[in-house]
Amino acid sequence: MDAANAGGRKPYSIEVVPSGEGDPLFRQREAGVGHTPYQTERIFYSLIREGDSEGVRRFFGEYLAKGIVVGRLSADALTQMKYFAVCCVTLACRSAILGGMDETDAFNFSDDCIRCADAMKSGEEIMALLTGRAAELADKVAECKSAAELPPPVRKCVNYVNRNLHGRITLAALAEYCGLSAGYLGAMFRRSTGCSVSQFVTKRRLEAAKALLEGGCSVGETAYTLGFSTESHFIARFKEEFGVTPRRWCERGV
Asked: Out of 44, 207, 246, 254, which residue is the most buried by the measure of CB atoms under 10 Å away?
């Protein structure tokens, strides 16, 4: 039975192994169907661990077109896909941690993905979510690997910014935190990251805004929580960064 393809042709194929009473291994042998090999999964999760987002995209394109086989997790096709998504996301985020991603960030990413999948109404939506978020996760791992190569003062600043996005962050405060002059730290930060401290802080706040919006915060609450001067300023910067307004971002999955 191809649960994902029931009801029409889909751009992916996920087959569910036979199940029922008796020995499941015997039933699978009788039907000539078995789970996708563990080695295939290892390839995928190693791409996450290495931060190879292009490899992740190629993997989904090749292996989903060929078809993958999973165990029966539910009698309902949509619930089956949601359970499948939970399994994929959970293992992918553990691989991201092994690749150097912060545990808290990885767990929050996992929770957000699972919430999104749970609200979806079709297998196509879920597979599109998995494809996009897996590549995004790999990009985050790559960023973490790059951050690990930053000079210690810059790495210290990055960690400080990530922990204090809701407060006021200035170059002067970071310089004092690192025990360096503002001019020296600012030049080192720009040379290492390609952007100024203020630009970096804004980018991190905009990324955090997506999670707050998806969690149910209003646009005004999000702008206030993340320290933007006005709601209109937040909306303008969000649209500049992501191409849509915060409200449209929230409505994209509706």
From this structure: 246
